[in-house]
Please model this.
Amino acid sequence: MIYLDNAATTWPKPEETIKAIEDCIRNNGANPGRGGHTMSLSAGRIVFETREALARLFNAGDPARIVFTGNATEALNLALKGVLKPGDHVITSSMEHNAIARPLHVLKKKGVDVTELPCSSQGFLDPGDVSKAVRRNTRAVVVLHASNVTGTIMPVKEIGQITREKGIIFIVDAAQTAGLLDLDVEKMNIDLLAFTGHKSLYGPQGTGGLFIREGIELEPLIEGGTGSRSESLEQPEDMPDRFESGTPNTPGIAGLGAGIRFIISRGIDQIRSHKHRLMARFLDGLKQMKKIEIYGPGDPAVQVPVISINVKEQDSSEIAFILDKVFHIACRSGLHCAPMAHKTIGTLDRGAVRFSFSIFNTEEDVDRTLDALERTVAELP
Ligand SMILES: Cc1ncc(COP(=O)(O)O)c(C=O)c1O
Model:
């Protein structure tokens, strides 16, 4: 099978990730931070080492500023619901995933004012529009780093300059970019950075987290046992315990740590160049083909390796079905949990067929997919 649905979750996972999960369950399966015995301490060390690796990766300084969540969606809910109060104004874009759009919809009903800035048909957001949209009560700007529909990279650094100058909280959804693009919370002035562990960080599903800049006041989403200050009914103020109630996903976090070590040992630049080459080859091939419409920039210089297309007038799900059943190629059709992005690029009615690459894909995968598409187009009426 050729797996080209890596924007949903990377597959296969590195052997290192699988081994680390197995080793954690077999040999370090105690509850971290909940006991003083040897195995609990060793499980705690695994969690800490992954936190430390993430802090280094994002230039976040103190590892305690990284809190683990089950995925990017939970991290974004924590960021948005923890920061925004009735009467606040928040600025976002028309390319966002439902992980942002749906919590904002709920907050809107509770009295938060939301401005959704329109992006171009290729998914670009003009940072000047962000500047113009700022009001007296603007509390936060929230955008994704790269689109999961068109791959378009957003001007995060420029927006970070604007929010810093104006004293506004900057929240970034790095679900598609953590482990792939450079992410430096200092240089980019990011206050809250949501990431997922199971995509370009090559960890397992059920992992993710949020970087929380010191000084940002955030309400926890849940309260409960943290293994610390148990004598008090008050949720601890200490980081990261304040935002990590309940037993963590230690095996998953062990796998995430191994995933991060994997990308660092392979070289993040090398991984990026490999995927960049595959994307360029795929785009070149697609551009030669008639009856294929490519969405987004169609330019590897300004996008991540996520490419959405449609074939003739066909519904995207029919094309993905043929690719899967006839050619054993896994890709994704439909709206990719981002209806606003599809509205922006004009595909809300039929969605798009999305292809996304990982370090484990090859040029042969690209050529076989192009060939399958060519044959599919030839068979259509
Ligand atoms: C841009 C973007 N944001 C958020 C998410 C949500 O990530 P998760 O499913 O890990 O919560 C995704 C997942 O596809 C995404 O692509």
Summary: The CA atoms of residues 7 and 308 lie 11 Å apart.
